[in-house]
Amino acid sequence: MQVSIGGATGSLPALASAVVDKLPLAPKLSRASVNEQLIQPQPLHAVFRPQQQHGPLMTPPATNFALDLQRYGPGTGAQSPPTLTEAQQYCRRLAHRHYENFTVASRLLPRELRQHFCNVYAYCRWADDLADETGDATRSLELLEWWEAELGACYGGSIRHPVFVALEETIRQFDIPAQPFRDLLVAFRQDQRLVRYETVEDLLGYCRYSANPVGHLVLYLGRCFSSDRAELSDSVCTGLQLANFWQDVARDFDCGRVYLPQAECRRYGYTEVDLQQRRCNDAFRHMLGALVVDAEDRLRRGWPLIEQVSRELKLDISLFIEGGLTILKAIRAQGFDVWTSRPVVSRMAKLRIVASCWWGLYWRSLGRH
After folding, report:
1. CA-CA distance, 164 to 34, in Å (whole number)?
2. If you count Cβ atoms within 10 Å of the first and of the last residue's Cβ in the chain, which end, N or C, has fewer?
3. Mean pLDDT (whole number) for 279-286
4. CB atoms < 10 A from the CB of 55, how many?
5. DSSP helix/strand/coil, 40
6. Phi, psi at residue 337, to the nearest 5°?
């Protein structure tokens, strides 16, 4: 059977098989992609396989961020900006090189949206690397200030960097305001200053800048942004961010970050000694159980968004919600012991998610005819 949902057409088994390996489960949408999954966020790896070309923008995929920064960073503004075609190729190459969560999203998007998702991804990727790849918080903050100045220059009509040459076209076509781009930078700066959060509200404040702006950008690309839809999107994006935090408690701890709210630790009697010794005791299980329920509630509150967005986005949003719920279910299934092993989702479970979301949307679409 050939089905068409959200601009993607093909047999269900073939399409499901194509995306199952990269199904995004609870991605860290904007936090330094200290994860190998997100935002963050796309299916760009599978969609774009640019040919090896020569020229200043077409460096080999092995080129690292340090070389990109040397070529396009502060103090390099004297060189002529690339053409739009060159800039778009650069953004595709960047997405291909990192292929995190946007890879799944773009495979399921119509062709005319894929480049724009690459352009937005490239902006997030650069901000992410500026925050994480220098190894110096002070230097990272300086570079993030420069990146925000480049964003301002883009909106002011003075474009130099290849990412902004490509992004300007996206901004113009979809009438995207600067605020969601600026909000993401707030979170990246916060990452340089904070490694722990006192209360749940403090953590939600971080998600407001680290995760929610990505959802707003997706709504703009779907030409369906509104305050009501943004509120539902915030619920989904925050739920996904929290699910990723609870999945990666051990991994983040090893990186020097603790997202477990300190007030909740005290409330449940989970001490600093327990934390340092990575104990999964009753206090930890009860605390994480409550945090998992909260994340599940946020994801489920976002369900109405699926029926309110353009058809191009329906399947992606369904996959993100179901993916987040599935990883939270996996945390519960191992008794909330995320210290001993990181919760994972089997290939078969991923395939079931794709099939369930696809068929759910397909049958609902039949009911509307």
Report:
1. 24
2. C
3. 98
4. 10
5. coil
6. -85, 85
CB 338 within 8 A of CB 299: no
DSSP class per residue in 160-227: -SHHHHHHHHHHHHHT--SHHHHHHHHHHHHHHH-SB-SSHHHHHHHHHHHTHHHHHHHHHHTT---H
Dihedral sign computed on CA atoms, order 139, 141, 145, 150? positive
User: Any idea of the CA torsion for 163, 164, 170, 176, to the nearest 10 degrees?
Assistant: 130
Rg (C-alpha) for the chain, rounded Å, is 20
DSSP string, 76-96: -TTSPPPPHHHHHHHHHHHHH
* Residue count (the chain): 369
Write the pLDDT tens digit of every residue in 52-79. Answer: 333 334 333 334 788 889 889 998 765 7
Residue 322 CA neighbour count, 13 Å, CB half: 20
Listed residue (163, 179, 190) closest to 32, CA to CA: 190
Identify the sign of the CA torsion 261, 263, 267, 273: positive
Residue 130 in this model has a pLDDT that exceeds 90: yes
Q: How far apart are CA 83 and CA 141, in angstroms?
A: 29
Nearest-angstrom CA–CA distance, 96 and 102? 10
